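DM from R.C. (forwarded with permission)

"hey, sorry to bug you on a friday — could you get me a structure for this? deadline for the figure draft is monday and I only need the backbone to look sensible"
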Amino acid sequence: MSETAKLTRGSIVGHLVGQTAPMIIGVAAIMSVGLIDAYFIGQLGSQELAAVSFIFPITIAISSLGVGVMVGINSVIARALGESDVERAERRANFGAVFALGTGVVLGLVLYALLDPLFRLMQASDALLPLIRAYMQPYALGLPVLLLQMGLNGVLRGQGEARKTSYVSITFAVANWILDPILITGAFGFAGFGIAGAAYASIIGFGIAILMALYLISKAQLPIHLSSIRTCNIKDSSRAILSVAGPAAFSNAINPIGLSVLTALLASQGEAAVAGFGAAGRLQSFATVPLLALSGSIGAIVGQNWGARMPDRSRAAMKWAAGFCLVYGLATAILLYLTGGWFAQFFTEDPAVVAEFENYLAISVWGYAGFGLLITANGALNAVDRAGLALTQSAARVFLVMLPFGWLLRPAWGAGAIYGAELVANLLGGGLAAFIAWRVLRAGPDRNAGDASSQTKR
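My reply, with the result:
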């Protein structure tokens, strides 16, 4: 049993609670930024709120790519620690930070160059494009800051430092809470930047969060010393991170890509439908915070025990996590089904937007448990170097279920087809993902040919 991997000892349930609870706080803090953005942007007008509804799935897709990089760094560090190879874990941690920053530069430049074609493809109107550009141009240029912050969080997560990652997320959120009203609508005699102010607030918040992350990493087991990269085999380290980060990034991005296509389909139903869909999606993101936190925390637990050759503990973590997804998903669905109209009033007073907000929640909430099973199963698969399998099942959920359902039934059902597509995809995708993850974990690490890093210490 590894003495460097603290998650290989003690109660699995205790580790799940201990790793997930602080991450709930951290993820909730991040999601609260989306709600606050939507609230203050909603004060600007319904057009601005509709513009954000087009922007939201794209920013989530980009963030999901960053999450993939974070998961890749998390995975290689956790398994190295599980194998008691602290030196390799430290090299991977330092290289991971530089890798994340470089990825952010590339993504930012590509996104900036493709803004207009991308949003025209999503059927954004000419009236909304100037508002979309005002937000997306600074956001694209700020992506290196976003990716670096996520990479540093991956370094902390791989060490099982969930509490410290929550401090980084809270730092980002608090900065946005303070800056949003000032930079969006204005305060203290300052007029504000309108919708662009939300992007400026996020970029500044990410920069402050990086400073917090660097401080916390300096106190952790694997400090950042960029000089250690000189002794790092860049080719092997890149391959190790990308073997998880590449599939995980696309796996995480597939859902918001699907939502982008659904938004484009929904545009034919009018701006009220798009605005209601987008605003309700912000609330839904906040409601699923515990599920998102669990999907992030399970990776370190499964990864460390997998690396230490204790697959029974990895399976136990998946079993308890699945049970939580079912119970929490159903309870939250009932709550939001009953209170959707009340929550809608926080975002808009437009009756048409409120009606679409309520309609979306009335249908989509019953898939929360399935969504939780999907992302938690993917987190477990990524941790054991089976990210390609996670990517395949995520792609099947969106491209074989969600999009065909919404496309084929939209002429008859209208907006309801779009909302129903998400529900059916979550239910079918979640059930299948949980079954596949359980089969993989039952096989054990010695029979998992994809877990190359557990066979060879690079």
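R.C.: lifesaver. DSSP finds 16 helices and no strands in the chain.
me: no worries. The radius of gyration is 21 Å.
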